[in-house]
Specification:
single chain, mainly beta, about 35% strand, globular, binds adenosine-5'-triphosphate, binds magnesium ion, membrane, ABC_transporter_ATP-bind
Length: about 90
């Protein structure tokens, strides 16, 4: 499959008062250009966290988000997010 967006062994954890909360572990996904993918799961399973990582709005703890084989770790015009709640981005 021709990878447009690739999630490569992604981990994400948050620091909660000195305690590390593991939210995503070893997430792998390859999406082709034009492919339509839905991510489903119960509330709190990490869907929005994953979208924030793809959007470059939060850093991965491990692994990489690859867009056409280039690692992305900041927002860019080729990735857009519609937030669940009204949001203002810093800046
Ligand atoms: N900034 C943060 N700091 C600490 N914990 C966080 C943070 N953001 C998310 N979490 C935790 O990560 C987990 C996943 O949250 P997330 O919002 O990604 O879930 P979700 O799948 O989008 O849920 P929902 O279906 O309710 O939108 C939850 O336990 C949440 O409390
Ligand atoms: Mg969500």
């Amino acid at each position: 499959m021709n990878a447009y967006l690739k999630l490569d062994h992604i981990d994400k954890h948050f620091d909660r008062g000195g305690v590390s909360a593991e939210v995503l572990k070893d997430i792998n996904l390859t999406i082709s250009e034009g492919e339509f993918v839905s991510i489903i799961g119960h509330s709190g399973c990490g869907k929005s966290t994953l979208l924030n990582l793809i959007a470059g709005l939060a850093p991965v703890s491990a692994g990489a988000v690859l867009l056409e084989n280039r690692e992305v770790n900041e927002p860019g015009p080729e990735r857009a997010v519609v937030f669940q709640n009204h949001s203002l981005l810093p800046g």
